Amino acid sequence: MHAGLYDILRGQFADGQPIETVPESAHRLNSVISNLTGLLNSRRHAVEHLPDFGLPDLGSLYREMPESGQDLRKYIKDLVEKYEPRLSKVRVREEPAEASSMRVTIIVTGELDGRRVRLQTTFASNEAVQVDQYTRRE
Questions:
Q1: Which of 17, 62, 89, 98 has a 20 to 30 A CA-CA distance from 113?
Q2: Which stretches within the chain are classed as H helix?
Q3: Taking Cα atoms as reference points, which of 76, 86, 67 lies closest to residue 129?
Q4: Is residue 45 classed as helix, strand or coil in its secondary structure?
Q5: Average pLDDT, stretch 35-42?
Q6: Is the pTM of this model over 0.85?
């Protein structure tokens, strides 16, 4: 089993899927997605012994969009590289979005066990951050 310890203790991944209902070949990727979901939904200084764990206040980033998009991408890249060591060769880019959508979509690309993976991370002003497998074509 390649699920993370936290996933095993909870008995499910961050999306609510029970571990036993997910094929074992998908455990590792689902565990990475669970970890990134928790990481990107955490705010800096919320974990006292890891002051750089999580993102800074997103309110200020949203107010300064689109100029703050580069800052958000850098924060995400740094966090993924530090707190998700199962992903290597991490790249982060922003998807073009409609101004009226009030959503920012960031694509995180990396290698997991030598295989390329793409994850879509969606930030919305009134929702939790969502991390899923990337489904759009480039």
A1: 17
A2: 5-10, 27-40, 58-63, 69-83
A3: 76
A4: coil
A5: 90
A6: no
- Choices 3.40.50.300, 3.10.450.40, 3.30.360.10, 3.40.47.10: CATH for 5-133: 3.10.450.40
CA angle, 127 as apex, 95 and 111 as ends, to 5°? 45
Q: How many CA atoms lie within 13 A of 94 on its CB side?
A: 18
State how far the Cα of 97 lies from the Cα of 77, in Å rounded to an integer: 20
Q: How far is CA 72 from the centre of its chain?
A: 12
Query: Could you give the C-alpha distances from 63 to 24, 57, 77, 92, 101, in angstroms and in order?
Result: 42, 11, 21, 21, 14
Q: Shortest CA distance to 91 belongs to which of 78, 77, 104?
A: 77
Angstrom distance (rounded) from CA 37 to CA 52: 16
Q: What is the pLDDT of residues 10-27, one digit of tens each?
A: 888 888 889 999 888 889
